[in-house]
Write the structure tokens for this entry.
Amino acid sequence: MTEPKPTVYHLFGDDRFAMESFLQTLSAKLGDEITREMNTSRFAAPNVNLAALEEDSLAAPFLALRRLVIVDNAERLLEGRDDSAWERFEAFLLRLPETTALVLLEMVQPPKGRRRSKPTRLQAWSQTHSERSYVREMFRPRGPAFARWIGQRCADLGGAIEGQAASLLAAWVSEDAALADQELQKLLAFVDRSRPIQVQDVERLTPFHGQANIFALVDALAERRSAEAQRLLHLFLQEEQPGYAFAMIVRQFRLLLLAKESQRLGRPLKDAISLPDFVLQKLAAQARLFSE
């Protein structure tokens, strides 16, 4: 006897790319494109008509085994409503037929430190109704974990990327998975999947929002090439806000101070700064250009 399918799919976290990938997989099971369109509804909280949501969710699928109903920003679904609205919503969740897959996308920030965050109301409901819920935590990978994610995503797409290239791409896309995926596909097409993506490929094809110029700018400042830094700053300010340049310059000199302190104490730079090895090597060289 087959186990009953979940009627509530509760995805929570801040990884929108992972959530959308999950939705694509779930949607593909409905059938061809026309069938999927006829059996899919999508709502965005907080402006959700609960009556319409219930009607769509309780309706029978058309020429398919299931209906797919998606609620974006589910953390705001009952925002500003009293407890009676939540009680009605709970009762509605319990009435969902097995022919409906209701996907609740709850955007929440990752817990700080080692302590787990207090479950939200939706999370508490899903935990106590595990027999009809599929719950998945989806937080964005960060730091070295994001570079590893890029490597795995590249493999999933049928290619390979060198570690330093993955770290550089992670930094240039500010750990945005959707942007990283878009750039990976472009980079894989460029190398024709015949060799791993290298640092020079990323530098050549991925100048995100002035990122290439801003890194060149802060490097020029750190290496005391004032004329080049002035030229790059002028180019950068033609397209970007000065506040971003200021923040990146402050960041660069904070890193240089950490590098200088590590050198003074004779400690490995990687103990103070979590960045790719080739970036640490460049920082160490730059720090030696400044006196105590």
About this structure: DSSP finds 13 helices and five strands in the chain. The radius of gyration is 24 Å. The longest strand covers residues 100-107.
